[in-house]
Each structure stands twice: as C-alpha cells, then as structure tokens.
Amino acid sequence: xxxxxxxxxxxxxxxxxxxxxxxxxxxxxxxxxxxxxxxxxxxxxxxxxxxxxxxxxxxxxxxxxxxxxxxxxxxxxxxxxxxxxxxxxxxxxxxxxxxxxxxxxxxxxxxxx
Length: 113
Known about the structure:
The protein is α+β, with helices and mostly antiparallel strands. It contains five helices and three strands. The chain has a single domain (14-104), classed as Arc Repressor Mutant, subunit A, CATH 1.10.10. It has helices at 17-24, 27-37, 54-67, 85-91, 95-109; strands at 43-44, 70-75, 78-83. The chain has a three-stranded antiparallel beta sheet. Helix 1 runs antiparallel to helix 3. Keywords: DNA-binding, Transcription, Transcription regulation. InterPro entries: ArsR-like_HTH, HTH_ArsR_DNA-bd_dom, HTH_MetalResp_TranReg, WH-like_DNA-bd_sf, WH_DNA-bd_sf. It comes from Streptomyces clavifer.
C-alpha cells in the first residue's frame, strides 16, 4: 500500500539542468531556495512569508519539487521542504552555490537583505 500523502519527486538521474535553471529563474522560487539554503533543517511551508496567494505559493513549491531542486515530505500535518543539495551538487557541481551566491550579492546590491 502506498502512502496517499507521499509526493512525487524526480529520481536523481531524471533531474535536468534546464528544469533546475527554469525553477531558479523566478524571483519567488529563488527566494524560497535562499531561505531553505539558510536553514539548518527542513522548513514547513507555513514558515514562508511570500507576497503571493496560497495557491500561487503551492504552484511555486510544486515547480521546485518537480524540477528536483527541493524535496517535500509530510510529518504529521506539516509539509516540510528541504533543498536537494547533494543531488544537485553531484549532477551540476557548483551550480547551486553559484546561483545562491549571485542572488545574495544582488539582494545586498538592491538593499533587499
């Protein structure tokens, strides 16, 4: 019997660079990834304060999950998200750290941090 609350994720070998780059190209999704990168553990979706509706937030998390950037699991009633850092670093060495570094520099330059 499968868990009805299990979420579909691509296997490591199914993750494609163009999907990852697409997922990271949206400012809201990049904001989510930056928050996850700065967290010590997975974060509940409710921890994110985003300037979009709940349904749009759900869409952004789904794009990140389906592209292989994040993994999501249910713990009780909370849906927790975490970066797939090991998978991304294995497939595309330096990509995630470069994008996050560039995003951090941009945020500082624009006074968003």
